[in-house]
Automatic annotation (TrEMBL):
Residues 178-278 form the YHYH domain. It comes from Adhaeretor mobilis. It holds the Pfam family YHYH. This is YHYH domain-containing protein. InterPro entries: YHYH_dom (IPR025924).
């Protein structure tokens, strides 16, 4: 599978104000008719995750065209699982006190011992997140979180585990608003999400309303000798855009498939379904294109998420994306 997207933006990249993550114009291609096209099913979204009933409206898509779309407004916090933990607080803490971290396709449990040996993992003696008393340096205040969860990490917070402190809750009142075409359209040219709009927007949404984001730029995070662990659901928080996923780990709502195919776990912003990585026999999908998708006669064209250690949900958009935004209620 070709990795189409280049993780060139940090996970904490954001827009000020309403933190809008809207998508804009991208490259155009010919529309290719498909024998089978599965429309978006709004009933798959978890009712407890919705702020208001899903609406159907004519909206403008990322290429400037108009289409009938679902407008899905959701809560910022998932309704089907707890968020966190992310970082352990002491070298003696077990893996249950932390989340996960990824490197070279591998998923690691973030225990205290794991944090203590980051210098070995990265073959770099400058890693040192552990104090003399065994406690781990974690962003445990809003100031620390804000100064560490940004591209130019404040030098005071180098060698820290970056996580959202539990008392930083303002983001939880935000709403996620998704505009998704009802009937996805297959295009001959794939669109890299980083080349669409401001390049920071999500690629899709889980049925609990949480954003599926582009790859986290691990290389930029570790440059400051920091890690920003995901929880065991594959998500973490940034100061403005809130909780979002960089990996799918099987903790969210799934729509099982009668033929044993991998379950449906959400929708991309272009309306094509996003399915889990493995089918019921734990086999990987075959014949994926640069977008992480392929076609079958039951589901039509659809995506498969990459393995959790690959730091990628999907590779690119095959269809015409709608938009997503984070709205701060007045």
């Amino acid at each position: 599978m070709t990795n189409y997207c280049i993780p060139s933006y940090p996970f904490w990249c954001l827009l000020l104000g309403s933190a809008v993550l809207s998508l804009g114009c991208g490259p155009k291609g010919e529309t290719v008719a498909q024998k089978v096209v599965q429309p978006v099913n709004p009933d798959h979204f978890i009712a407890d995750s919705l702020i208001e009933p899903i609406k159907k409206e004519m909206r403008t898509l990322s290429d400037g065209s108009k289409a009938e779309c679902y407008v899905v407004t959701t809560k910022a916090v998932p309704s089907d699982h707890e968020i966190g933990p992310w970082a352990p607080k002491h070298v003696t803490d077990g893996k249950e006190k932390g989340g996960i971290w990824i490197k070279d396709g591998h998923v690691y449990d973030v225990s205290g011992e794991f944090v203590a040996h980051l210098d070995e993992l990265y073959d770099d003696p400058q890693w040192n997140l552990v104090r003399e008393d065994g406690s781990i340096k974690v962003t445990d205040t809003k100031e620390a979180f804000d100064l560490a969860a940004r591209p130019n990490v404040d030098p005071r917070y180098h060698n820290h585990a970056v996580e959202c402190p539990p008392d930083v809750v303002g983001w939880k009142s935000n709403h996620n608003v998704y505009v998704i075409p009802v009937n996805p359209v297959y295009r001959s040219i794939a669109t890299d999400p980083h080349r669409v709009g401001d390049g920071h927007g999500p690629v899709g949404v889980a049925f609990n309303g949480v954003k599926y984001d582009p790859p986290a730029p691990i290389h930029m995070i570790i440059k400051a000798h920091t890690i920003a662990p995901f929880d065991h659901s594959g998500g973490h928080v940034n100061p403005h855009a809130g909780y979002h996923y960089h990996a799918a780990t099987g903790k969210t709502k799934e729509i099982e498939q009668a033929d044993g195919h991998a379950p449906l776990i959400g929708y991309a912003l272009d309306g094509f379904g996003i399915y889990a990585h493995l089918d019921e026999d734990e086999k990987e999908p075959k014949g994926l294109d640069e977008c992480s998708g392929h076609y079958d006669d039951v589901r039509g064209y659809h995506y498969h998420v990459s393995a959790a250690g690959n730091n990628q949900i999907i590779g690119a958009f095959r269809g015409i994306a709608g938009s997503a935004s984070v709205v701060e209620p007045k």
